[in-house]
Amino acid sequence: TRSTTVEPDNATNWWQDIPFQLVKQRDLSAFIVGMVVNCIGNDSSLNIFSHKSILSGGRSGRLRDMLQRSAKLRLVLECGSCLTVRRRAMEFAWLSFDVSDDENQMVRCFKIPNKSEADSSKIFQDFSQLQKQGGGKTSFGYVNRSGLPERGSWLVEAHHPRWEAYLDELAAVGEVTQLPELGELDRFPVGSSVLTPDETPFPTLNPRHIRADGTIDFDDRERTRFLTNDRYAGQLELQTGDVLIRELQSFAGGESPLCIAVYPTSGAKHYLSPYTIRCRFNADVDYDVRQFVIAYLSSSEAARWLSSRADGVHVHIGRLRELP
């Protein structure tokens, strides 16, 4: 526990004095919120102001699951960045719940845009309009009448009505499927302790070897790390045609296109490294389909879909498996 006296005009300094690690102790948050929900009576309201990480990711899934079982989610408000902690912008969210027996599942979702996109009066007007609606959408929000999933993402973009139209557009081009139907997605299965800078017969490709132009820099020996032995060599060996995807998108923004390269025919063997995802197509997937999938994975459309389901710059293999 930590006890701190807060002066009204010094709240920002008090917040910055809290250890940054405390913000990410999501299991502790689930325990505390669970106690609060159990203590308040029926026909009550519960409002939570939290770090945005509560809206997505597996580690906060337990908290979302507990909240959905104990109360009815009514409002998701993404507040954007409003505080800076240790020189890092912190993004927050406001969640509102009803503790009642009402079977209505309707949730209003609203994302406050950047100042460059709209002034405050327009944002307030749009939010007020959303509060009056029983369905449909506004400029910055929408009404979800069927509710949000328990452990799935609660990010506002994840369930926006625009994605239904997007899937219809994809279906107009051809059959809509997902990557697991076309091949196998893998990532480095063990910790970096099996890597060494000392040369062995098992060189791995560092994510930074994958260039933005879709090529692989085989000459960058400084970044190369090697498997310490052959224990995982068979599992991690790369083959011609493997699609390599950086797990980290550009820090310029989570919606930047994925950094992708296709492993070419090479005279030397290379192996998968941490922070790289490998997509290996099934043998029966023809060349044109492979080229289309690679182009789509590199597109801004795919990047927007992925960023709407997960906060931050990490490319989660689970989200890639769901990508239509």
- Adjacency order of strands in the biggest sheet: 1-3-2-4-5
Q: Specify the number of helices.
A: 11
The portion of residues forming beta strands comes to 15-25%
Q: How many DSSP-defined strands?
A: 11
Q: So what's the oligomer here?
A: single chain
Largest sheet: 5 strands, mixed
H and E order:
HHHEHEEEHEHHEEEHEEEHHH
Low-confidence stretches: 1-8, 17-26
Mean pLDDT over the full residue set: 80
Measured between the Cα atoms of the first and last residue, the distance is 45 Å
Rg from Cα: 23 Å
Helix fraction?
25-40%
Q: Give the helix/strand class.
A: alpha+beta
Outline, from the CA principal axes? Answer: elongated
Please give a quick description of this structure.
The protein has 324 residues and is an alpha+beta fold.
